[in-house]
Amino acid sequence: MSGVFARAFSDSERLMGEFRADAAALATLENLTERLAKTFMDGHKVMAAGNGGSHADAVHFCEEWTGRFKRDRVPLPALALGDAAHITCVANDYGYGHVFSRMVAAFGQPGDLLFLLSTSGQSENLVLAAQAGHDAGAHVVGFLGRGGGRLAPLCHQVVMAPGSTSDRIQEIHMCALHALIEAVELRMGLGQ
Length: 192
Description:
Layout: H1 2-20, H2 23-41, E1 46-50, H3 53-66, E2 78-80, H4 84-93, H5 101-107, E3 113-117, H6 124-136, E4 139-145, E5 157-161, H7 166-188
Parallel strand pairs: 1-2, 1-3, 3-4, 4-5
């Protein structure tokens, strides 16, 4: 059994090192720091969506803005697109592919940021959400893996995690999202 743990930690460390050495990914994160700070300072909001574990990461990301991260500060507007009543209504009446796009159409506005998290970039509901984001005038950001699939070309900016398995990709996404939150808080001079 110890081999399973050693392999998991070794794989995670190796892939995190690859990501840390990716100059393009780091430049995108630096740019997103400025864009997020401006989004909040201009009175706009963040929306985030994903499926399965990526949905949990989207909820976690938004909770860090509305609750707190490492610093006590004012709450910042972030909405995870995952209301159960909405999802079951839309899935039943329109199909599962529309569960996020209808929320983006309802809440998205010019100046907002839409974060779409996916380990493959192939999910129809995220592709349609990206299109709805464009229609709403939102800036679409993909935290993706495995080349980004159909979603990558629909994003204004992409943070691509290395790796071939969902668990490792999601670990990198969450680490990058946490670092992004910390960078934005520092950039905005928030908290203690």
